[in-house]
Specification:
mainly alpha, about 5% strand
Length: about 140
């Protein structure tokens, strides 16, 4: 038997939106995201050429992990970016410098490794300092 003080909680239905097409205004609907952070998320999405994983939100400067979890409940990756992956054995320095996960010195290191090893692969990079599994996973979004 229920009393009047007990209330049945009806969960609010949340409209799930596509993170890769949402506007900065859409993002401000998440508690903890204001105008500055929403614009920063959109700018970072553009730099990445689109999010491939929701966990890339953790890379947005100033975005708290608790807020990221809220975003992940309200936004999904309904469409993922379509990129033409460049073979690592053929990539130019200019193309490497456009990859957001690489510094100039890392791009130079890849070109140097490729010069010494015509069959350069991600496996070869694993043995190089600074190229951990996460870095290689992110590079694989742009290179093959």
């Amino acid at each position: 038997m229920t009393t009047q003080t007990e209330k049945t909680k009806i969960p609010k239905s949340i409209e799930v939106k596509n993170l890769n097409t949402s506007s900065a205004r859409d993002l401000t609907q998440v508690r903890g995201i204001g105008e500055v952070l929403s614009k920063r998320i959109v700018k970072y999405r553009k730099r990445l050429q689109g999010f491939d994983e929701l966990d890339q939100l953790y890379e947005v400067y100033g975005l708290d992990s608790l807020v990221v979890e809220k975003v992940k409940r309200q936004f999904k990756l309904i469409t993922k970016p379509e990129r033409v992956k460049i073979p690592i054995a053929e990539v130019t320095m200019e193309a490497l410098l456009r990859i957001p996960y690489l510094s100039k010195s890392e791009a130079k290191k890849i070109i140097g490794l490729r010069t010494r090893n015509q069959n350069l692969s991600f496996e070869n990079l694993r043995s190089e300092p600074g190229f951990d599994s996460l870095k290689i996973e992110r590079l694989a979004l742009y290179l093959q």
